[in-house]
Write a structure and sequence with these properties.
Mean pLDDT: 90
Low-confidence stretches: 1-23, 33-56
Number of strands: 14
Helix content: 25-40%
Number of helices: 11
Distance between the termini: 32 Å
Bound molecules: heme C
Strand content: 5-15%
Largest sheet: 4 strands, antiparallel
Length: 429
């Protein structure tokens, strides 16, 4: 919070766009700066954090899939629209794309509609040994960039940048499916304290499935925060994810990620980087974060007697222990995000998923731990699980291992009618 600004309060943001004022805008981020807010005194969550029945529903918070949160004021709507435009901007080599990258725009992966997922996967690699996990950063890991800008001429010297490949040293290779970004402002607005309390509650009441927060460093404050974004909950804020993705997906440097991605880990070839200066002043990163903060949650699909019954089965067989139906946000500078109950069907904690884990270590997550995948908007997804291996929700359930094995076997033993009800419920999310 607290990005300095000189040009006026939130109410005049819309006019900033018109006037082209250079001053920094106030951050919409609700993320506590860290420190004291991470500490909670008791084990109490608001009583309704874990129940979904009495809380106001997400429906009141959505407009359409891909639309802004309901209840934004005109200035916030203007930021949403400007952010969405920037999110769709195609970068060019002249202004900083690459040298290695995955795509030239956020929307190439996060689309249908804008902010969703096209089902694009990307590759991570590394080397697991008895001594631990080596992300092979010196060889371009752990994230592979599968595109490059090709031939460049600097003075009279020519060089050809080529896409990265998984090096022979790697013995772990994992695909990661693009996740949809709907409703993430709500996820960011949940306090660290609430997620830590949820983890304690699981440890007390459902120790067999208890989750672990991925405690990671927030850039630039250095505060240790509860990570919540990404398949491993490896990133604590939308602003940080924006800068990270701008660098690692598109090859754009920005103030918090000033160092260019090394092609296959090789620093020397950066002598041929056609855009060596900082590629973004931080403005674009903020606009991506604005868009995602204000992007509404997926509207709930049609409900029926069958889907309601399926929701009960979901709770009874233990799915809801990890796929927490309801969370409540803390304070936020955006009133549409403040103190809201919403239904992500995730605890945003890490769980040991046995063989389903992808073998990659990020932050405090081990190779076997994955973040509980939020189930909201499930009906609009092209594929399931971190690598997209499951084509149906049912196939995804049957892959649950480790702490998810018990719920999986209870699912497998359900009579056909209850199983169908559960699947109808999942399709209604
Ligand atoms: C090449 C495809 C690709 C591009 C381009 C891309 N992303 Fe992503 N995005 C992904 C994938 C894959 C994941 C899951 C990553 C993981 O967990 O390792 C992801 C995850 C995210 C998440 C976390 C969502 C969640 O569910 O927690 C955010 C936020 C995000 N991307 C923002 C952006 C922004 C902003 C841009 C543009 C600067 C961008 N992405 C560009 C593929 C892409
Ligand atoms: C121990 C915690 C835990 C329990 C219990 C659990 N899940 Fe999951 N679930 C996860 C995690 C973690 C993932 C992500 C795994 C991955 O992609 O590697 C996931 C993924 C999913 C997915 C895929 C979502 C997507 O976007 O790809 C579905 C569907 C799902 N779970 C449904 C269920 C159902 C139904 C139950 C009850 C039978 C259940 N889960 C029980 C932790 C759990």
């Amino acid at each position: 919070m607290g990005v300095p600004f000189r040009c006026g309060a939130l109410a005049v943001i819309a006019s900033l766009f018109l006037l082209g004022c250079e001053a920094r805008r106030p951050s919409l981020s609700t993320a506590p700066a860290g420190g004291s807010e991470v500490v909670v005194s008791g084990d109490t969550l608001p009583a309704d954090v874990m129940s979904s029945d009495d809380a106001p529903s997400t429906e009141g918070l959505s407009t359409t899939l891909g639309g802004p949160l309901a209840g934004l004021d005109p200035a916030e709507l203007a930021r949403f629209t400007a952010g969405r435009d920037e999110f769709q901007d195609q970068e060019t080599v002249e202004n900083g794309l690459g040298p290695v990258f995955n795509e030239a725009s956020c929307v190439t992966c996060h689309d249908s509609p804008v902010g969703g997922t096209t089902g694009r996967t990307e590759t991570r690699f590394g080397r697991g040994t008895l001594m631990g996990f080596d992300p092979l950063a010196r060889l371009g890991g752990s994230l592979l960039q599968d595109h490059a800008i090709g031939g460049v001429t600097i003075g009279d010297r020519k060089f050809v940048f080529v896409p990265e490949v998984v090096p022979p040293e790697a013995n772990v290779k994992a695909l990661r499916l693009t996740t949809p970004l709907f409703g993430l402002g709500l996820v960011e607005a949940v306090t660290d304290a609430a997620l830590l309390a949820l983890a304690r509650q699981q440890a007390r009441y459902a120790p067999a499935i208890r989750g672990t927060p991925n405690m990671v460093q927030e850039i630039p404050t250095g505060a240790i925060r509860v990570g919540r974004f990404g398949w491993k909950a490896q990133v604590p804020t939308l602003h940080q994810f924006s800068g990270d993705a701008y660098l690692n997906e598109i090859g754009f440097t920005s103030p918090e990620f000033p160092d260019e991605n090394l092609p296959q880990g090789n620093r020397e070839v950066l002598a041929f980087n056609p855009a060596p200066a900082l590629n973004d002043s931080g403005e674009n990163v903020e606009e991506f974060a604005d868009f995602m903060t204000l992007l509404g949650p997926p509207p709930r699909g049609p409900r029926s007697y069958l889907t309601e019954l399926g929701g009960q089965v979901f709770r009874q067989i233990g799915c809801a222990s990890c796929h927490t139906p309801t969370l409540i946000t803390g304070d936020s500078p955006v009133s549409a995000l403040a103190r809201r109950a919403f239904h992500p069907y995730s605890d945003f904690l890490l769980h040991n998923m046995g063989m389903l884990g992808d073998g990659i270590v990020q932050g405090q997550s081990t190779g076997r731990q994955m973040r509980t995948a939020p189930l909201w908007g499930l009906r609009a997804r092209p594929a399931f699980l971190h690598d997209g291996r499951a084509r149906t929700p049912e196939a995804a359930i049957l892959e649950h291992g480790g702490q998810g094995s018990y719920a999986r076997s209870r699912y497998a033993r359900l009579p056909p009618f209850a199983r169908n009800a559960l699947l109808a419920f999942l399709r209604s999310l």
